[in-house]
């Protein structure tokens, strides 16, 4: 349990630093934009290369992946249906909302939770790879298309993911993992250093936005925020539990790992994407805040019930 609390506390402190810097007027909204862009174009791709190059990509072929996919797909599909039919949200806003409802913080929070609560960081690898290689590239392709004027032809749309820096970094990491190639030190060391900047940049930028942006629930729909938060904290882990336990027959510690991973809060990089494309920024920011706070009791309860 201490690992869960430590992970959440670490994130909270770094976000608090960003909010404090904004409150003291050391930085302003332009700094938040710069930090987000540096994280998106430079630091995060470097992090993807180094993280995935060390991962065992064969782990994606597991019951963990199947249950995780089910949880994410159901949560995102429910949001998309409501957003398009009831709230009539645009394509870009709907995409960010769907990510807010289903894209878990498998990196900077999932890894410590997997290590300290589940006993092995490898438990989070299938979700990490699924999101970086499938969900994120598809979402970014849609956001890229939505941000352009006019219609994209199918080959332009299909090529978008491989032209995105995050996707390129992810694919390079997978190639390194599959081939067993090791980057020379003069390449790996700078990438490691840049990658280490990704999470702090995201979190500080998020803290700045919390302080300078509208208050929680303002400039946005309370019903929409409640929907994304409930889908993330309750629906996604429940669907993952049902598929893993009832459909696939997973039991014990393996079941706990699947459900806890699905109950992780919305990832901070969704706010980076929202800022980058100027779509549903407030919804992403507020969902991250609510699910990060709300996931603490949810994960502790899951660890107690299933552990």
TrEMBL record:
Q: Does the keyword Membrane apply?
A: yes
- Membrane topology type: Multi-pass membrane protein
Where located? Membrane
CC terms in the record's Gene Ontology section: membrane
List UniProt keywords, sorted A-Z.
Cell membrane, Membrane, Transmembrane, Transmembrane helix, Transport
- InterPro entries, alphabetically? Mem_transp_PIN-like (IPR004776)
So where does this one cross the membrane? 6-27, 34-53, 65-87, 99-118, 124-145, 166-187, 287-306
**Major subcellular site:** membrane
Q: List the Pfam families.
A: Mem_trans (PF03547)
Query: Where does the signal sequence lie?
Result: none
The answer to keyword Repressor applying to this record is no
Q: What is this protein called?
A: AEC family transporter
Q: Which organism is it from?
A: Knoellia remsis
